[in-house]
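tool_call: predict_structure(chain=1)
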Amino acid sequence: MTDTPPAIDERYRAMLMQRTGEARLKMGCAMRDTARAFAEASIREQAPQASMATIRKGLFLRFYGHEFDASTRDKILASIERAAQPGS
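tool_result:
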């Protein structure tokens, strides 16, 4: 769904393209960092005592979980859990 008129979309795109590639990259990275911070805050709100492994698994599921079949998703989650174990 879009409620933005095409002329405004074109104007916005033109404004973005006037920025340097470096500036656009920094902007994209900042947006990604903000999205991650919001997702992590949501996970911590639901489980205040969550371990780092739990947070990492939650972030994986929110951002990438839908891109994998159940078997692959389970393997990745198990790998995240193993990586969090002492001596890993």
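agent: The chain has one domain: 6-84. Proceeding to next step.
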